[in-house]
Amino acid sequence: MPTLSIIIPVFNEFGTLEQVLDSVENCGLQDYQLIVVDDCSTDGTRDLIKDKLASRIDVVVFHDSNKGKGGAIRTGFEAAKGDYVVIQDADLEYDPKELPKLLAAILAGEADVIYGTRFPKGEAFDVTPTWHRAVNRALTHYSNFFTGLRITDMETCYKMFPTPLIQSIELEELRFGIEPEMTAKIADLGVSFLDVPITYNRRTYEEGKKIGAMDGLRALYVITKYGLRSIFLP
Fold it and tell me: Closest Cα to residue 189, out of 154, 137, 226, 139?
């Protein structure tokens, strides 16, 4: 059984997916399962996977319709066979060289769940515009208010869980709302969380970044929804 399952949700990442696979293969991990979920790409990514990349991937799933990042992540969780599972974006914002550090922390028993934070406490990471850091900080603090956690980057892509733990909860969100949903539902289980600082190379909207203002509003709704549910329906 592989130690780590790496889930890559993909939607229209023709220009970066191969580089991400290269980076995963050269990040220093030896024992992992690579899962790619194509969320009905329309830019040639599906053909790239079928014609060139499939032999390098352990599990490939093609969605027949676009289900959103959350839907792709949920599909990936179902296919995970490793002891632990982590999400890796298909663009070049998150560097897979950070994955061994996250895995080492969880294997050492430092916490049950590891988040790779772009905004460590006490450090001014100038990796995103001021408005983006402010929104992320506000959403993270609001999430922490309900969960009781002290994490610094709730919206980070790099979330590493024990596979049986994440597979034990029912996820509902289809888009980026899955980030606060996972955090809320896993926190309800009473497990420990740890932030581990990571590097980050922000992609612009011109380069294909997909999250937008409506996703921020949805995150507020999701945090409130599951936060109140946890209080009134324990």
Answer: 226
Q: How far apart are CA 122 and CA 171, in angstroms?
A: 33
Residue 205's pLDDT band, with cuts at 50, 70 and 90, is: very low
For 102, half-sphere exposure in the C-beta direction (CA atoms, 13 angstrom radius) is 34
Q: What is the reported pTM?
A: 0.90
The residues near 112 (Cβ < 8 Å, ≥ 6 apart) are 106, 161, 162, 165, 191, 192, 193
**Residue listed under structure tokens 């580089």:** 19
Q: Please write down the long-range contacts of 170-173, taking CB distance under 8 Å and 24 or more positions apart.
A: 171/70, 171/73, 171/74, 171/77, 173/70, 173/222
Considering only CA atoms, which of 156, 136, 152 is closest in space to residue 144? 152
**Dihedral angle sign, alpha carbons of residues 45, 50, 55, 58:** positive
Domains of the chain: 4-232 (3.90.550.10)
pLDDT tens digits for range 66-87: 999 999 999 999 999 999 999 9
What amino acid is encoded at 62 in this protein? F
